[in-house]
Every structure is written in structure tokens, then in C-alpha cells.
Amino acid sequence: MRKSKLLEKLEEEAEKKQIIVRYEPLGLHKGGLCKLFGRYFLFVNKALKTKEKEEFILASLEEFSSPSEQKPPRDLDE
């Protein structure tokens, strides 16, 4: 299945913010943003429907501020 144009744009926006988007099997969790080895990762449950992935990534990017304003990541699976 091909990615939607919106999903591709959201992934590009994440890349601009130096966030690595990873699609992984996460069971019942949607995913979350974390800092690991000095890099930011946004884990997204690969079982989500495209619309859910788009909404989750968009919400995560809206929560992410520039590194100078960075707040600790929180669990986005609420």
C-alpha cells in the first residue's frame, strides 16, 4: 500500500525537525516520541490506519518544539 501525500509531507516535516519516524508493531499503543542516544524518534504503530497515522504524527509534531524550547516528551497515547 502506498503512503498518502499527507503522510509523506508529515514525515518530511518530522525530518526537518530532526525527528526519525519509525513504524513498528506496538500492540494496543499508538506510539510516542522519545529521545534515544541524543536523537528524537517518533514511534508509530504500523497497524494504525493511514488516517490514524496522519492524526498521530500531526499531533506529535505540534507538541514538539525547537530544541531550545524543548520540553520532556510525554506519552502521546492518551
Q: Can I get a quick summary?
A:
The chain is 33% helix and 24% strand. It is α+β, with helices and mostly antiparallel strands. The chain has a 3-stranded mixed beta sheet.
Give a structural overview.
- The radius of gyration is 12 Å and the shape is globular.
- The mean pLDDT is 87.
- The protein is 33% helix and 24% strand.
- The longest helix is centred in the last third of the chain and has 14 residues, at 50-63.
- Strands 1-3-2 form a 3-stranded mixed sheet.
- α1 packs parallel to α2.
- It has helices at residues 5-16, 50-63; strands spanning 19-24, 31-36, 39-45.
- With 78 residues, the chain is an alpha+beta fold.
- The relative contact order is 0.22.
Number of strands: 3
Q: Uncertain segments of ≥5 residues (pLDDT<50)?
A: none
Distance between the termini: 27 Å
Quaternary status of these chains?
A: single chain
Query: How would a textbook summarize the main sheet?
Result: 3 strands, mixed
The SSE string, one letter per element, is HEEEH
* Alpha carbon gyration radius: 12 Å
Shape: globular
Helix content: 25-40%
For the biggest β-sheet, the strand order reads 1-3-2
Kindly state the mean pLDDT as a whole number? 87
Task: Provide a count of the helices.
Answer: 2
Q: What structural class is derived from the secondary structure elements?
A: alpha+beta
* Percent of residues in β-strands: 15-25%
